[in-house]
Amino acid sequence: MAKIIASVNCSHVPAIGAAWDLGKTETPYWSPVFKGFDFSKKWIADLKPDVVILVYNDHASAFSVELIPTLALGCAAEFPPADEGWGPRPVPVVKGHPELAAHIAQSVILDEFDLTIVNKMDVDHGLTVPLTLMFGQPQQWPCQIIPLPVNVVQYPPPTGHRCFNFGKAIKKAVESYHEDLRVVIFGTGGMSHQLQGKRAGLINREFDMAFLDKLVHNPAAAARIPFIEYVREAGSEAIELVMWLISRGALSEKVREVYRFYHVPCSNTALGHLILENAPAGGVRRAARPAARPATRRARRTARKAK
Amino acid sequence: MTSTTKAAAALPARREPTKGFDDIPGTTLFDAQRSRQGYHLNMFCMSLMKSQNRTEFKANEAAYLQKFPMTQEQRDAVLKRDWGRMIELGGNVYFLSKLFSTDGLSFQYVAAEMTGLTQEQYAEMMLHGGRSIEGVRSKSDKPKQTKQTKSGKK
Prior knowledge:
Low-confidence stretches of chain B: 1-7, 143-154
CATH class of chain A: Alpha Beta
Largest interface: A-B, 47 and 61 residues
Radius of gyration of chain B: 17 Å
Helix content of chain A: 25-40%
CATH topology of chain A: Protocatechuate 4,5-dioxygenase, Chain B
Strand content of chain B: under 5%
Shape of chain B: flat
Distance between the termini of chain B: 47 Å
Oligomer: heterodimer
CATH superfamily of the largest domain in chain B: Dioxygenase LigAB, LigA subunit
Shape of chain A: globular
Strand order of the largest sheet of chain A: 7-2-8-1-10-9
Structural class of chain B: mainly alpha
Largest sheet of chain B: none
CATH architecture of the largest domain in chain B: Orthogonal Bundle
Number of strands of chain B: 0
Structural class of chain A: alpha/beta
Number of helices of chain A: 12
Low-confidence stretches of chain A: 283-290
CATH superfamily of chain A: LigB-like
Number of domains of chain B: 2
């Protein structure tokens, strides 16, 4: 059985990719950003996941205004880096996992999440920047990667609630896959930022911190944050945070916060980063089981007497 | 071309699709209506993802723009690199990023332009924690917003 064992959340600011590609990681501006991922690089190198499901948004690279899928899944064997106007990033081609991706697509569509299957797609900074932050610059990425682009560019994006439940459907899909695979899910984008108009440069640290706490301890509450609140409180592009709810939904109810990092500024953005692991087995069992109905008539009678 | 001009002129009056949105200052919602309005402007930007198109555009911008059935207003905004105006005319910042990347400009450069601050003022504001939310939650907060912008200029 395959299993999602952890989630990684982080911003995917394009300037991070440019800083890395141009060798600026040691400059005073960029060094704190990259240092914030030293722990994470080691953590994921030790964890050695087989597959990463990478939730991100395409920034008018693979999908233009011609075609706007709300939820999509990359089912191809390979995804080349996109040319976003300055030539493709010098990063390895992303190798997918077509078999697991097809299985996830089937499972979630039958669970009534009508996603779009994508068999040919270039991947932009939304996907490659988190890989750079977590893996540096290897000859090839150390695991297979399934891209999961979400529309957050044209209104309306999927609601937080929808995203959270979609994450749960992905968890179920992965757990019904025949092969033993260890999967990590990335939820990327955010945190507070606005890239347009007179309010550009908006940062709301309080909102971001509260969001992180809610995401860890009370994700159902985080899932109820409406669109308008993200935009008003944290900027028009902060709506990307709904993608963090997909990754959260794919974990168990109780999680362990492994690492948190927050840094301002990263270009126009508050860079946020969070690593969560499913809580140890005992805790998970206790959390998941109280509602279960005893299997036999005798056991139910005993349970009633005990009350 | 006349057909698109007509189409643009025929756009219904703007109505924000989500309650409370028009009370958020300095923020444009890229919804289906703006996506229609800016379709050719955004598709022009998409064309700049190919290196040969970037070369052709740089060689003669006005001639290249004629290939896309945009409104003259949209073409003028592109030629002037009036980012705020392009957004008003249905452009979206992620599409516009193909244009400013072709120019060798960053998101931060363009964001600063749109706020009306100088590059130095904007960079300074970001280094000091960014634009504060206080006073810019809603249009009725406007007086405080002016104060905020001033403190950003320090």
